Amino acid sequence: MARAVVVTEDGLVLEAHSVAAPGTVLGEMVFTTGMTGYQEAVTDPSYHGQILTFAAPMIGNYGAGPHSMESDRPWTPGVIMARAGNRAGTGGTTGWCDWLTGQGIVAVEGVDTRRLVRHLRDRGAMRGGISTELSAADLIDRVRAHPTLDGRDLTAEVAGPARTMGESGPRVVAIDCGMKRSIATGLVRAGARLDILPAGTTADEILARDPDGIFVSNGPGDPAAVTPVIETVRGLLGKRPIFGICLGHQMLSHALGMATERLPFGHRGANHPVRRIEDDRVEVTVQNHGFAVAASPLPDGVQITRRSLFDDSVEGIAVPEITASSVQYHPEASPGPHDARYLFATFIEALR
Questions:
Q1: Residue range 275-295: average pLDDT?
Q2: How far, rounded to the nearest angstrom, does the alpha carbon of residue 148 sit from its chain's CA centroid?
Q3: Backbone angles phi, psi at 322, to 5 degrees
Q4: What are the residue ranges spanned by the domains of the chain?
Q5: Is 332 a catalytic residue?
Q6: Catalytic-role residue among 9, 40, 283, 332
Q7: How far does the chain reach from its first CA to its final CA, in angstroms?
Q8: Which one, 136, 187, 194, 238, has the greatest CB density within 10 A?
Q9: Which CATH class is domain 155-349?
Q10: pLDDT tens digits for 204-250?
């Protein structure tokens, strides 16, 4: 295996071995604690612009295949692992490293991922890079010249074309900010007729379709910078029921006059406990975000409905008077625990 190097902008250098495509990639260095769902993570548009480190000790041990694609292509430019498997299995007939190679992804193993994850936990998410070509010093220079994700709206780069799904039930317009396939499938299975429209669609264009409800999806980038979607959601408040998840939760919050803030190292994985304030029940959830909704200021009429048990960050809000609500996590949980899948059904049933 070819030698490679992994660096962070503050000077950490880790040796690695290439297991996929050669090259140099730059991005925000983040990590996920998920033990499964590696192909789903790499093809999740929310990871656009981020180099993904897997904290689990071995990744790729059940293969890869088309049924685990969350979009038409991978979005993370680079993958970092302690050990990479490359055999076919229940996940598909292609080995993981072979799949990464075919997709042109720069991926490495043999990395001290425990050290890297602890570094990011202690110092926060930061820019980083992987290279099979450059020296560590040259790569660090490239990393430090690379733009951060702060202030960047990436939704137009990841949103798909307008499309429809489902044949009966309440009509829901989904604003696609980088929506995973399993989210659309989950809404349809809950009973929705789905019109999926890309980020940038105006409130008037959405209302012209006479939907019963509005769904705002997940996606990448800095939520405060996604002003087109914020303005669209603001124009829909009180006119139709609205439900948002992940970036959609943050978009709704901004539209209501709230703010978002950077988390030190984000929430990414399938083991995040969330407390439902209404009944003190705990849901174990799937999450993928680097920003969170700020608890203050809290506008009149807005209720905080859920809190993270890791750091007490805001995980859900509701505005009963205008039938708007959102959660920071992923109800579709593909893969992951199914504690929150009821949220799609609850939203669709309320539209009937």
A1: 97
A2: 17
A3: -120, 15
A4: 3-145, 155-349
A5: yes
A6: 332
A7: 57
A8: 187
A9: alpha beta
A10: 999 999 999 999 999 999 999 999 999 999 999 999 999 999 999 99
Please give the average per-residue pLDDT across 192-213, as a whole number: 98
Tell me the longest C-alpha to C-alpha distance in the chain. Answer: 60
pLDDT at 257 exceeding the cut of 90: yes
Q: Active-site residue 315, yes or no?
A: no
Mean of pLDDT values over 43-60: 98
The single-letter code of the amino acid at 146 is H
Phi, psi angle pair for 319, to nearest 5°: -130, 90
Give 149's contacts (C-beta < 8 A, 6+ positions apart): 28, 49, 50, 220, 221, 222, 290
Question: Which residue in 246, 254, 283, 289 is the catalytic one?
Answer: 246
Active-site residue 330, yes or no?
yes
Tens digits of per-residue pLDDT, 104-137? Answer: 999 999 999 999 999 999 999 999 999 999 999 9
For the residues 246-270, what does the mean pLDDT come to? 97
Pick the catalytic residue from 254, 267, 289, 330: 330
**Ramachandran quadrant class, 178 (left: phi over 0; alpha: psi -120 to 50; beta: rest):** left
Angle at 326 between CA 321 and CA 332, to 5 degrees: 140
Share above pLDDT 70 across residues of the chain, in percent, rounded to a whole number: 100
State the amino acid at position 187 in one-letter form.
Answer: L
254 and 223 Cβ atoms separated by less than 8 Å: yes
Could you name the CATH architecture of 3-145?
3-Layer(bba) Sandwich (3.50)
**pTM more than 0.90:** yes
Contact criterion met (CB below 8 Å) for 349 and 191: yes
CA torsion angle 97 103 106 107 (round to 10): -20
User: Is 221 in contact with 152 (CB distance < 8 Å)?
Assistant: yes
Whether the CB-CB separation of 100 and 63 falls below 8 Å is answered with no
pLDDT of residue 174: 98
Statement: residue 275 has pLDDT above 90: yes
CA distance 72 to 315: 29
Whether the ω angle into residue 198 lies within 30 degrees of 0, i.e. cis, is: no
Cβ pair 252, 211 in contact under 8 A: no
Q: How far apart are CA 335 and CA 352, in angstroms?
A: 29
